[in-house]
Amino acid sequence: MDNPKQKANIHIPSFTKYLFKLEKKLNELKSKYSKIALYGYGGTTRLIAPYLASNLTVIIDKNPTQIQSDYTICSPNEINNFEYDCLIVTLLGRENPIIDELLEKNIPFNKILTLSESFFDEEELFSESFKNDDLEAGICTQEQLYSKKYQEWIEFFKIDLNQKHRKYWEFAFVAESLKKRDMLNEGKKGLGFAVGTEPLASAFCSFGAQIVATDLNFEKASEKGWVNTNQHANNLRELNKKNLCENEKFNRLCTFQNVDMNHIPENLTDFDFIWSACALEHVGSIKLGEEFIYNSLKCLKPGGIAVHTTEYNYSSNTHTIEEGPTVLFRKKDIERIVKNLEKDGHKVIKINYDGGTLPLDKYIDFPPYSQEKHLKLFFSSYIITSIGLIIEKKI
């Protein structure tokens, strides 16, 4: 005879545990926030609303006139007429488009919560179904920082795993994207742009790849402030400081030259792969960064791989910084670049624009910035993060 518990796919002790945990977390929210708003009048809201009692100030729903309830209901356009300390999105699986909508209505990002981060801790999240084991094209998220691939690369780079930093995700993303496409092998040639003091050139040489590492000349880098912030390289010695590659091997496989990303020398061709880590937003404008992506493909062999990371404007798809020392690419900018690349016959790996719903995905770092929690940050009135692109040149 079938076990009805197995047939229903329900683990009763775990279900009971989560019910108790839900009640406990709701009580904690009530203690922390005196005024709570809920988004979405579905089954979840009807379950938790009675527990919130007098702390619940308003429920937001797109169809408020169709709801009969003793609670105060309003439409999304009326949110700013109410006071609240936090707003909990209760529509499971639809959190990210709702969060984007709330941000467009100028709802403070730090006031928005989701059920996953409100009611469960990290260990439970990652011991259940949330754990991913890959690094993918798209936005840096906390889930990827718990992947096996990320942690292997961070240990290889000799970086502290406790530092949850988007820059380290960029290094791991670039390295893993190339490794899984068999680029980091003997006989492969790679070209790195604006390498600064990043560990990638020495790491790639350790696998046997032949690398040409480039950066701005010293004078231009000094003008932009890269020298004073230790983000510029001017010779080979600065590229293997962590000894990721044995010195003799590194000196044999790696060469260095000064290159302006807006004026790529014509002799830099026939490479199997190219990369840049958070560099194309510093070439002067979004337009110039976009042109760099197209022009740099000339450096590749047919079928070669390009991997780039850049600054991503997470809070707005309309307003942004389009010119200056640091520009912020919007979703529509990335989509335009992808469309143009595909029109020219190149392949772009599908980009995941999901910004994540785990605690660090919701944490916004403010100046002075932290090394421990730095996936999203507040920069010049925008919330920004890192995004990664993978391009396969047409054959």
Short description:
The protein has 395 residues and is α/β, with parallel strands linked by helices.
Supply the key terms.
single chain, 395 residues, alpha/beta, Rossmann fold, 10-stranded mixed sheet, 15 helices, 17 strands, 20% strand, elongated, disordered N terminus
| CATH architectural arrangement of the largest domain | 3-Layer(aba) Sandwich
How many β-strand runs? 17
Mean pLDDT score: 86
Highest CATH level, the class of the largest domain: Alpha Beta
How far is it from the N-terminal to the C-terminal residue, by CA? 58 Å
* Beta strand %: 15-25%
> Main β-sheet, in a few words?
10 strands, mixed
Question: What is CATH's topology name of the largest domain?
Answer: Rossmann fold
Query: What best-fitting shape do the alpha-carbon axes yield?
Result: elongated
How many helices in DSSP terms?
15
Calculate Rg over CA atoms. Answer: 24 Å
Helical fraction = 25-40%
Structural features, described:
The structure is a single chain. With about 400 residues, this protein is an alpha/beta fold. It folds into two domains: about 5-120, Rossmann fold (3-Layer(aba) Sandwich), CATH 3.40.50; about 140-390, 3-Layer(aba) Sandwich (Rossmann fold), CATH 3.40.50. About 35% of the residues lie in helices and about 20% in strands. The chain is built from 15 helices and 17 strands. It has helices at about 5, 10-30, 45-50, 95-105, 115-120, 120-125, 140-145, 150-155, 165-180, 200-205, 220-225, 245-255, 285-295, 330-345, 360, and strands at about 35-40, 55-60, 75, 85-90, 110-115, 140, 165, 190-195, 210-215, 255-260, 270-275, 300-315, 345-350, 365, 375, 375-380, 380-390. The strands form three sheets. Strands 6, 8, 9, 10, 11, 12, 13, 14, 16 and 17 form a ten-stranded mixed beta sheet that branches. A five-stranded parallel beta sheet has the order 3-2-1-4-5, sandwiched between helices. Helix 8 (about 150-155) crosses helix 9. The radius of gyration is 24 Å and the shape is elongated.
